[in-house]
Design brief:
The protein is an alpha+beta fold and 265 residues long. Helices cover 27% and strands 25% of the residues. A hairpin with a 6-residue loop joins strand 8 and strand 9 (177-181).
Length: 265
């Protein structure tokens, strides 16, 4: 069964979403060359806790940090590390969750570090657009497969690929729950969308092939061919009209591109 959230529960999830968005904005302010991913994690944890929330990811299935910070060919689940310093031209995906009064919100965005290649800037733009197209498809009467198809068509139409080993999900009292929300159409309609359903829609898009591999740390997923990868995510509530987006990306310039040769494929 896919839970239908009450108005009271939705209000709590909106508070969690507000905090998730402000946390992502706080992290974004610190992104730059020479900054470690561990520093970004510390910023996020302090912001969440000082505003009355709890990091959803820390301790989840043993994950050791409060955010995931995935650089360049890292798709998702990158573990923040003081030895990993961002460099000019990198892209870094920040994924984080926040729990407020027993309910969660999940958000992600991929940021440029200084000036990035034209290919990387386009990858960020297309992935962000794909997430918004998936959100727009989350209306009553549609099915989960309609979200998947909206994402896949936009990504593949731009010449990129959608990761198939990792998917979006339901969200609420736990950070991951039913239903699965793939970013590609699996050949079936999937569950019908109904008002009150809470979903995390999160395209993970590779510049090259869709296949991924798991790193030696057993957490970080990387592109199998070494190409760049981007990740954007919103937590939404299905409503009778348009979806309620409970998270908000920070107002940053997503695509500061240069004409340097493409990095990582």
């Amino acid at each position: 069964m896919i839970p239908i959230r009450t108005p009271e529960e939705i209000a709590i999830m909106q508070r969690a979403g507000d905090l998730a968005g402000s946390t992502l904005a706080a992290v974004a302010e610190h992104i730059g060359p020479g900054v470690s991913t561990a520093t970004l994690d510390e910023v996020a944890e302090e912001h969440i806790q000082s505003h009355g929330g709890r990091p959803s990811f820390k301790g989840y299935l043993g994950f050791p940090r409060s955010i995931c910070a995935s650089v360049n060919d890292a798709v998702v689940h990158g573990v923040p590390d003081g030895r990993v310093l961002l460099q000019e031209g990198d892209i870094v995906g920040i994924d984080l969750g926040v729990e407020v009064d027993g309910f969660h919100a999940d958000i992600a965005a991929t940021f440029p570090v200084g000036e990035i290649t034209e290919q990387a800037a386009r990858l960020l733009r297309v992935t962000r657009e794909a997430c918004l197209r998936g959100v727009a498809a989350a209306v009553p009467g549609n099915h989960v497969g309609d979200i998947s198809l909206a994402v896949q068509r936009h990504v593949e139409g731009a010449g990129f690929s959608v990761v198939r080993d990792l998917v979006g999900h339901g969200i609420g009292r736990s950070v991951h729950q039913e239903p699965r929300v793939p970013n590609y159409h699996e050949g079936e309609a999937g569950p019908e969308l109904k008002p009150g359903m809470a979903l995390a829609i999160e395209p993970m898009v590779n510049a090259g092939d869709w296949r991924v591999r798991v790193s030696k740390d057993r957490w970080t997923f990387r592109t199998a061919d070494g190409s760049l990868s981007a990740h954007f995510e919103h937590t939404i509530i299905v409503r009778r009209s348009r979806p309620l987006v409970v998270t908000r990306w920070p107002a940053v310039r997503w695509a500061k591109s240069s004409r340097r040769a493409a990095v990582g494929g």
